[in-house]
Amino acid sequence: TDTFHYTTYHTLSEIYSFQDMLVAENPKLVSKTVIGQSYEGRPLNVLKFSTGGSNRPAIWIDTGIHAREWVTQASGIVFAKKIVTEYGTDSAVTEILNRMDVFLEMVVNPDGYHFTHTNNRMWRKNRKQNRGSTCVGVDLNRNWNAGFGGHGSSNNPCSEIYRGTRAHSEPEVKSIVNFVRSHGNIKAFISIHSYSQMLLFPYGYTRKPAKDQAELDQVAQKAITALASLYGTSYRYGSIITTIYQSSGGSIDWTYNQGIKYSYTFELRDTGHFGFILPANQIVPTANETWLALKVIMDHTFKNPY
Amino acid sequence: KGDFHGHQVFRIVPKDDVQLALVRVLEDILDLELDFWRWVTPVDVRVPSHSLQVVKTYLENHCIKYFTMIKDLQALLDEEQRQMKSIAPAGN
Asked: What ipTM, to 2 d.p.?
């Protein structure tokens, strides 16, 4: 993985190969777990970074729930490499991994991602065939059991924010739900999207403030300050509903309601010119600045057990 | 593969909630086949070539500020593909 091209976008099979390479190179630190299968039968791979112990407190990071947000999957690759290179060299990462596990799902929506490479670069949803409709796909970030069916999602299968027939109906979502529940000791859940430069926390489906809002807000401010320290990229932060818009059935609202206090979602950088077609030379800078913010959240989680 | 020749992406800058609501009206006109990339202010929307004139006229008639963020989406996608093809075989 030292010679892997981090400065270009990759197909799904290349990402899966990268994951296997990383495991092969770091057998004592990295392992791969398949938590389920996508609608079209692709494996849902999660990399586990662990230095030992059983059922340690853990941090979850996911990228690529929306297929066309290519810089997120690409950033996930960079994060994976950073974790293995910084373990033993960066004191914060080393301390965290000596006590906690990190789980990273780089491609939450592999069917959609494959589809963006083969058919339609602008595809967002998964590839579920919706009964009674010619329109395909469910928005996986409207399918969670947190205000499911509320404002900011759609019951129209042709909409980009179609929520699906019921909460957790989609295997890509259900697999994470099962994993989080069975693990039972996940302390931070960070879901990464692009683009619009924001760091957000619950809630999206209700105006009711999260009970930990003050702390979540403080950590977010610290995280975006760290992020900005590299290239000056300016982020907005706050709850989803007050910072962007109402959106129901989102992942971090569900995880927060499951008791995972440090639930955050990123919207990665926007250069103002390219939207989802962020040039590949922006991948590493984007990932590098985001990594600084991720480390703030991970470090805070590590230092504030609950 | 999807063909995005002539598709443009507009960055729309509504000055208030009234203008934002006027932009939202566009979303419900299915014939336009608009793809809203993001709904925060500013709003970004992909407009197929067959809807360009209608959307421009609508925005201008309502004095809603906008500019073209991407003039030809397919050109960007072609460049993205070219870069991937040029690097992938050597690296993998």
From this structure: 0.92
